Amino acid sequence: MGAAGLEHARQDTPIHGPVPDETRQGRIHRQLRELILTGAIAPGTRLRESELSMRFGSSRAPLREAIRRLDSEGLVRSDFWRGSRVAEYSAADLYDLYALRGLIEGFAATTLTGPLGPEARARMAAHLDAMAAAARAGDWLAVAQRDTAWHREIMLAAGQPVLLRAWEGANGPLQMTLGQVAGAFYGRDDIHDRHHAVLAALQAAPAQTEGTIRRHYLETAERLLATVAARDPARSAPPDRVGAKPPARATGGEARRAAPSPTGGTP
Known about the structure:
2 strands; 12 helices; Arc Repressor Mutant, subunit A; globular; 2 domains; mainly alpha; 267 residues; Four Helix Bundle (Hemerythrin (Met), subunit A)
């Protein structure tokens, strides 16, 4: 991926509001994406083209392209016979997505040839301050989006386009969930402390760096599962997920079936 491609990757997570020179398809994608991320359109909801065309004042062609983009981001599930619906994820699915992103980012960090440059650090500091401000305002979707942008700087610095594409694949579902429940387990100081720990780890030996990043993601996943379990005690999170050390995880089908679905559907 060239410099232009990496710059595009840095900009592909909007933080609310219109985008300059936005196309009609881009506008529909942005607005529909935000409705899904905030839960205004609930998981499992069928996306009816006739209704959405009226809602956005658009023909169906740009709407269909926007839905295809959302499908590629993991926010929509499309089927030839059943049409398109907002995607649903179980707690176990989300845990695995956090674990996958931690594995990819942790490995990518080991390929860094030197410390992060001053421009990248300045952007990360700005994202972190914006995360804290959004948390104070209760805008947890903005927190989730800034968190993605903060971590993306590590991926961009690694300069590994294949890893970046794989890493991006988890962002939609994780933003959708974090943006809706993070208020139950995140605080302003917590945000700064946890991310500064990752920054400090980037100066350590590769194995330590990788382990710190993996733990950062798994701790967030465990907090998420604990929050879901607290909200729905009758359907507790899989015991092998919460509090488990990163290497020791069961992957059996029964654990997945027992997991509650924080995005509104059943596994």
